[in-house]
Structure formats: C-alpha cells, structure tokens
Amino acid sequence: MIDRLLDLTAAIAPAFAKSGARLYHLADDSGQMQIWSLDLADGARRQLTFLDEPVGFFARSPADDTILFGVDRGGDERQQLHLLRPGAAPEALTAAPDAIHGWGAFAPDGGCIAYTANTRNGVDFDLFIHDLASGEARCLAELDGQRKVLAWSPDGTGLALLTDRSHADQDLALVEIPTGAIRPIERRHGLARYAALRWRKDGTAAYVLTELGGEYMGVARLDPATGALDGVFACDDGDAEALALSPDATRLAIAVNRAGWSDLLLVDLGDGAATRIERPAGVIGEIAWSPDGASIVFSQTDPTRPRGLWRLDVAGGQVAPLLAVEAPDLVLRPWNLARFESFDGLEIQAWLALPAGPPPEGGRKAVVWVHGGPESQVRPTYRPDIQAMLAEGYAVLLPNVRGSTGYGRRFASLDDVRLRLDAVEDLRRARLWLGARADIDDGAIAVMGQSYGGFMVLATLTRHPELWKAGIEYYGIVHFLSLLRDTGRWRWRHRAVEYGDPVRDRDFLHEISPLTLIDRLRVPLLVAHGRRDPRVPFSETESLLAALAAHGHEVETVLFDHEGHGFTRPEDKRRILGTVMAFLDARL
User: Fold this and answer.
1) C-alpha to C-alpha distance for 556 and 471, rounded to whole angstroms
2) Spatial distance between the Cα atoms of 295 and 314, rounded to a whole number of angstroms
3) In sequence order, what are the residues at sequence separation of 6 or more whose Cβ sits closer than 8 angstroms to the Cβ of residue 271?
4) Of the residues 184, 230, 329, 451, which has the fewest C-beta atoms closer than 10 A?
5) Pairing of strands 555-560, 525-530
6) Rounded to an integer, what distance in angstroms lies between the CA atom of residue 572 and that of residue 578?
7) What is the enclosing helix (H) or strand (E) of 586?
8) CB count, 10 Å around CB of 307?
9) Could you tell me if 68 and 57 are in contact, meaning their C-beta atoms sit under 8 angstroms apart?
10) How far apart are CA 483 and CA 454, in angstroms?
11) At 526, which helix (H) or strand (E)?
12) Mapped to the 3 state alphabet, what secondary structure does 181-197 carry?
C-alpha cells in the first residue's frame, strides 16, 4: 500500500513554450522532480533533465525556450543556478556551493538574469546581474538581510526587489539597473506583504499581491512613475496567492485561498468584474496563460489526487485535466472541514479525515498532525502519509492553530513571541475535541508534526503528557536559543521576529523550550531528521536524543545522511513512512 501511494506521480509549475505548442513543467515520474516537456497537440512527454537531485524551480526565457533552473545538494537549500538551452546539455552558471542563489528574473531580451545571493558573508543577499553570453556576473548592489528579485521591467532598465524581514513585514522597491539606485515604494498602509509582481508589457504599470492595510492579500496596481499602489481586487475572506496577467493585459487570473480550498477567478481590468471559474474542488499552485490568451494551465491537488495540470478554455469556461493522475485501484479518502473553540473563544479550523466504513467498537485510533512554519497552513492536498494512516484505520485531525496563515494578518500574529504557548493550548483543545467524539478511542491518540510542528509535538508531550499515547516528530525545534544560534546564518534574524530575541527574551525562550521540560515526557517517541538540514540543524535532534538517553526514555530514530528539511529521495520516503506506520501499529 505504501509503495502504491508513493508511486503516484505529480506535475507542477506549468510554463508555456514561446510558441505555445509545448508546456514545460516539473514532474517526479523518475522519483524526483525534473523538468519535462509536454506536446499539447499529441500529448507526448519528454524528460529534459536527468539529475541525481530534485530540480527546485525553473523559468523560461522570454526570448526563446532557454530554461534557467536551480538545484541544491541533499536538501541543504544552497541552490546553484543552471542553464538549459534548447538541444544542449545543462550548464552551470554558479559555482558557490556554500551560498544560496535566489532566483529572480530574465531580462526582457533573455540576455541576462538577475538574482540575489549570500556569497559575500553567508548572511546578506546581494543583487547580481549575470550576462549569459559572456558568463560575467556583477554585483549591482550590496544589500542586507533577505532580498528577492520579483520581476524585470519590460524596458530592461529596472528590477522590482523584495525585502523580507518577516512573514508580516516586507518592503517593495524599484532598482535602476544603470545606476544601482534603489527607490523604496512607500508603505502607506503600515506593515505589508508582497508577492507575484507582473508587469504590463508597455511598462506603464505592474500588478502585485499585497494587503493594502487589510487582513488578506489582494491585488494592487503599481504606478512605477509615482510609486503609488492602488487596489484592483480586494479579498475579505481569504488570500489571493497566485497571479497571472493575460498576454493582452486585459485580465488577471487569480487563485484565492478560502478556508483552504482555492477559487479560480478571472478579473477584468477594465471594469473590475471577477468571474469565478467552476471546476473540481482543489488547491491551486501555479497559473500560466498561453501566449495567445486562449487558455490557462494551472496545477491543482486535492486529498484524493496528486498535484496535476489542468487547462481552462477561457472563452468557453470549461476546465479539463491536462496531466492528472487517477488511481482507481486505491481507496483515497477525502478530508472534511471541522471547527472547534479554543480557550479564549477563538474559532480554530481543522481538517478531519476518516477511514472508510463504520468505526470499530470502542472507536477509531487517531493521529493529530501539526503543520510547520508556523507561518503555514494545512490545506486539503494529496498526502501519501495521511492516506496510509487512513487505509490502516486511523482517523487523522489536522488543525490550523493560531499563527497559521490563510485566516488573516491578525490570526497569523496570535502566536508571536510571548503568545507561543497559546498555540500549544489550541493543540490541547484539538486533542480534547477529537477525543470527545463518539467514533474516536480517547485512549489511543498520537500527535505528529514536522519542523515547528515538531516543536508543537514536543511541547504538548511535555506539558500535557496525560493526553497522548505516542508522539512522532520530524526535525523539530528542541530549544529556541540553540535554534537561533545554530540555524542558517541568513535565517536567524527573520526567525527572531517570530520566536523572540535571544538576548531580550532569553529567559522566556528557555522556559518554553521542550528540552527544559524533557523529564515530563512519558510516552514512546519517534524522531526523524536529515543531517543536512539548514533550517532546524541536526544538532537539535542530537540534543534531544542526549537528554532522552540521560532520562532513560524510550525513543526510536530515523536519521538520513543525504536529506535536509524534508525527505525527498524515493528510498527515504519509503523508509520514513514504513517506520511511521510500524510505530503507530505498535504503539497505538
């Protein structure tokens, strides 16, 4: 069963060839994400890259079908940039394996690329222009903090640059390439987020995802001459999170996250009217317009279907699968939206997934799964691990505790720094809500999570040990002070905004860290981690295992030499999922 669930392939990141006759995309048919080409006339597919590491991203040149892509080593997130010219083998553009190269944009003529990289000191991301003909890369500006190029202006003279201080605090600026001068866009509505900037071809305006002072991301029009941002499309019940501008610049295609599901909208830039596209329910990833504007291709997934590619006939409004996997031989279960009230009356949304058939006498055994981030959200997507649990009869609850994204700016801030344990209390309330159901065995519930979700697992196991039968954590935060000290040097300032300052908040961070209370742990624990993790360093797990050994506590481990913050290699995914299922069967 595990092998069959993991063998279902996914396709993401659609990008039309310049002619519109082919569709480039990422797919994991070979076991890891590689670049593929799909002929839209006859459906023939061809694999274009054959690497021993997954391709992290790619972009097509606006001038031809040259492709830029990024690859790291063993999940270390230190992406190196490569170029794939039509009919040629990939060629490396960067050779700084200790540095992160953050993708940006092609120049309009395809002759240069812009990106940011922390090659100077491992911390700050400088801005680079790389000439593809000569191979020369020059630093246009030395910058501080985390920076990202969002787009290259159509006239070739400017770049849109993002400064990312935290999930909730970002700046947008325009960079003049000839001089290197940076002109900030004034934040007239306070703190803001920005994403997915798309220029009109005439350069008179760009469209960008941002809040404009509201709770949710919408679309604003940027006037490059004045720096003014004016609202185009506002959302009052969910974030706009994917954006594509039609080739004739008359319409926007937008995906809006509403309670986890995606709505696909076409927005007329003339009158502002938004048309909702009817389609099977799912979560949309990327959106791409065909060069002639006649169709849109987007990636989509739901709990019963891996991410695949779907096509919209814009004129007729019909949506049909273009490259989507079906698995009629598997009984894949849907997820249902649930809600419960926390200690302060705050409503928490969660996904409840139940196995097929009636519950056994005494109720189902269950798992509560906690997402990472914490600036993230559990959404109804295809998850082989969740489907494996359902197939074995376990119920699964996936809560979006306070601090999750997707429910507005205020909700995402409700776990910041001194409010951290309020999210842990949300998790306790989720456990009590689940255990009170007549179809659940209240004495057989495990908790599971990854990254920040791993902290949540350890936090609830040490603060509420009586509630749980077992725990599973992947690469979790064990102590906030050691995390902030040892995480990738480019990350700690960004994370300190969320978790707390290691000097000012030192005593508090020590107090709430699971390692401080590890003697309270009472239940069996499974720990998994990759040694190349740049986010939650492997030393966090080493500290946890040492503390557990000192207390004589039972623990199982699954450790990987060539993985980072996640498990991507086919053999490693089989190993971890098989171990998890055996652990649950033995402990619940």
Assistant:
1) 10
2) 5
3) none
4) 329
5) parallel
6) 10
7) helix 570-587
8) 26
9) no
10) 13
11) strand 525-530
12) CEEECCCCCCCCCEEEE
Q: Which domains does the chain have, with CATH numbers?
A: 336-587 (3.40.50.1820)
Instruction: Give the integer Cα–Cα distance in Å for 203 and 180.
Output: 19
Location of structure tokens 């048309």: 275
Question: Is the separation of the CB atoms in 353 and 336 below 8 Å?
Answer: yes
∠ CA(159), CA(165), CA(171), 5° rounding?
Answer: 40
> Which 3 state secondary structure label does DSSP give 129?
strand
Cis peptide upstream of residue 90 (ω within 30 degrees of 0)? no
**Helix/strand number for the chain, H first, E second:** 10, 36
Q: What is the pTM of this model?
A: 0.96
- Residue for token pair 């610049």: 249
Q: Which residues of 69-95 are buried (b: 16+ CB within 10 A; e: fewer)?
A: bbbbebbbbbbbbbbbeeeeebeebbe
Residue 429 burial by CB count (10 A; 0-12/13-18/19+): exposed, middle or buried? middle
Which among 39, 37, 76 is positioned nearest to 54, based on CA atoms? 76
Is 6 within 8 Å of 577 (Cβ atoms)? yes
Which residue is it, tokens 């960067």? Answer: 94
Q: Which residues of 123-135 are buried (b: 16+ CB within 10 A; e: fewer)?
A: ebbbbbbbebeee
**Both structure tokens of 309:** 């590619």
Query: DSSP assignment of 332-380, as one string?
Result: PPP-EEEEEE-TTS-EEEEEEE--SSPPPTT-EEEEEEE-SSSS----S
Q: How far apart are the first and last CA of the chain?
A: 20
**Rounded CA separation 286/457 (Å):** 31
Euclidean distance between CA atoms 566 and 545, whole angstroms? 19
Neighbours of 425 (CB within 10 A): 17
Q: Is the distance from CB of 397 to CB of 476 less than 8 angstroms?
A: no
Asked whether the beta carbons of 525 and 553 are under 8 A apart, the reply is: yes
- Alpha carbon 431 to its chain centroid, in Å, reads 25
* CA-closest candidate to residue 16, choices 67, 51, 57, 56: 67
Per-residue pLDDT of the chain (588 residues; tens, 9 = 90+): 899 999 999 999 999 999 999 999 999 999 999 999 999 999 999 999 999 999 999 999 999 999 999 999 999 999 999 999 999 999 999 999 999 999 999 999 999 999 999 999 999 999 999 999 999 999 999 999 999 999 999 999 999 999 999 989 999 999 999 999 999 999 888 899 999 999 999 999 999 999 999 999 999 999 999 999 999 999 999 999 999 999 999 999 999 999 999 999 999 999 999 999 999 999 999 999 999 999 999 999 999 999 999 999 999 999 999 998 888 889 999 999 999 999 999 999 999 999 999 999 999 999 999 999 999 999 999 999 999 999 999 999 999 999 999 999 999 999 999 999 999 999 999 999 999 999 999 999 999 999 999 999 999 999 999 999 999 999 999 999 999 999 999 998 889 999 999 999 999 999 999 999 999 999 999 999 999 999 999 999 999 999 999 999 989 999 999 999 999 999 999 999 999 999 999 999
At 250, list the tokens: 């008359």
Cβ burial, residue 270 (10 Å; 0-12/13-18/19+): exposed
Two structure tokens written together for 579:
């171990």
Residues with Cβ within 8 Å of 225's Cβ and at least 6 positions away in sequence, in order, are none
